[in-house]
Amino acid sequence: MLSSPRTILVVLLLSAAWPTWAQAQKQTQRQAQQQTKDKATLVREAFASPYGKALTAELGKSLRASADPVCLTDKGLAVDQLEPRGRDIVITWGTRMLEGAFARIDRQTEDNPFADAGELESLRGNTDVKRYLAMEEPLRQAKILNLIFEHFDGYNVISRVKLGPVSPFGTGNEALLRLNPIDTTEEKLDEFAGKSRSKPLKRFLQLSEEAGAARAAAIKKTASPPPPLPQTFFKGVESDLAELCIRSGT
What we know:
Blueprint: H1 4-14, H2 21-25, H3 29-48, H4 50-66, H5 69-75, H6 82-109, H7 117-123, H8 127-158, H9 168-171, H10 174-179, H11 182-195, H12 199-220, H13 229-233, H14 237-242
Helix pairs in contact: 1-12, 3-6, 3-8, 4-6, 7-12, 8-11
């Protein structure tokens, strides 16, 4: 179950993937639609990563073990169809979750612009900053994947969907845990930043930390924290899973 502080943390961890605070405030409707497309693309890219492919394989294994064989026969579904169709379901619902979570945060922070947002954005064009962000990509993708599958699994438990867990934190799958690139990527980033003499990179990291703190402070001012993500953003996924012969209920 995702508490409000955890919601804040997740959004701050992923925020580098989307336009800066100042940009978001100035977006037109057309630009906002493009931002939504970017989120969907980002989720698909995460699923195309090595860790994403491993999680997809784990999802396929869970679907094959959990699907009702009589239902599969009645629907004319082959077991090798379950994994790709299940993957599309999780991508769709995971994208909705990220869109919904960021929409909530945007509403809570739009009246509290970060003073140095323009400088932070301009620093993204620096060569060293670009290299740092490129190195960071596996970490960001893994955090997206962990977030999606953690709450997909959580909703299935809460709603009594008869599908085994997928997240390595739910399955205890050591092999899958070892494929998670977060720790190794963080080590590489720390080493790169520690050895770098780039003033633009150090300024970028400083401003990024300050922007994160400002966002967190603004979010905490909200009168009513958002409810946990599983119930909010995965409600109804059982209907899609039923099409793959995954049962729910007592």
